[in-house]
Amino acid sequence: GQQVMQIPQYQHVQEGEDFTTYCNSSTTLSNIQWYKQRPGGHPVFLIQLVKSGEVKKQKRLTFQFGEAKKNSSLHITATQTTDVGTYFCAGPRAAGNKLTFGGGTRVLVKP
Amino acid sequence: NAGVTQTPKFQVLKTGQSMTLQCAQDMNHNSMYWYRQDPGMGLRLIYYSASEGTTDKGEVPNGYNVSRLNKREFSLRLESAAPSQTSVYFCASSRVTATGGWETQYFGPGTRLLVL
Q1: Using a CB-CB distance cutoff of 8 angstroms, which residues of chain B are in contact with residue A31?
Q2: Where are the alpha helices (DSSP H) in chain B?
């Protein structure tokens, strides 16, 4: 079945530094969604990418959808303590309104 | 507009006990979902409901049952709780986005369940 993998599983970042987390699907995706879960909280929708090669920005966050629509990345510049949390990517399953979530990248920020 | 609400927030059960987790949404969404999240893990779909009156199994349905009571409410029942069901349970609902017509999900605050 469809699998969505994220790397790295954990990311320790010094405050002010940049980092990138990656999402890879075993199948071509019609779209990819990113969610953020703060510690002790619930996942919150961040953004959706639909087109091949699409790039979207939200302040210091840059999201990219691969040309083959099988991978995506999230790049955060000048990391802040507010960026702490787990970032999940998710792709729709072949049938129905269901999503397959990746395992997430847990981001820890060192002040 | 409360979004997605879940009750209870916390629950401790003994092995073999039963309970029902409640979920309600006030956003007029058609689709609703139940996930479980184990420590350090991603989200695994237990059951989902594409619309009122329909339900379908997800990745990990064993040991659970669901009821889509009406458009607003979707409950999850554990008939005989087991320690392996210790987890955080999230309910979600979804709507079609303006871009491409794909659905994004809105999550409730979660129920933290411990089975002893």
Answers
A1: 100, 102
A2: none
> CA-to-CA distance for A34 and A87, rounded, in angstroms?
7
Rounded CA-CA distance A6/B24 in Å is: 31
Give residue for tokens 């639909």.
A50
User: Which residues of chain B have a Cβ shorter than 8 Å from any chain A Cβ?
Assistant: 31, 33, 40-45, 48, 50, 56, 58, 90, 92, 94, 97, 99-100, 102-110
Q: Is A10 on the interface with B (CB under 8 A)?
A: no
A43 interfacial to chain B (CB closer than 8 Å): yes
Q: How far is CA B13 from the centre of its chain?
A: 18
Structure tokens at A23: 């999402």
Provide the pLDDT for residue B8: 97
Residue partners of A13: CB distance under 8 A and separation at least 6: A19, A76, A79, A83, A107, A108, A109, A110
Model confidence pLDDT, tens digit, residues B18-37: 999 999 999 999 899 999 99
List, in order, residues 6 or more apart from A53 with CB less than 8 Å away: A64, A65, A66, A67
Q: For B42, which of A31, A42, A102 is closest by C-beta distance? A: A102
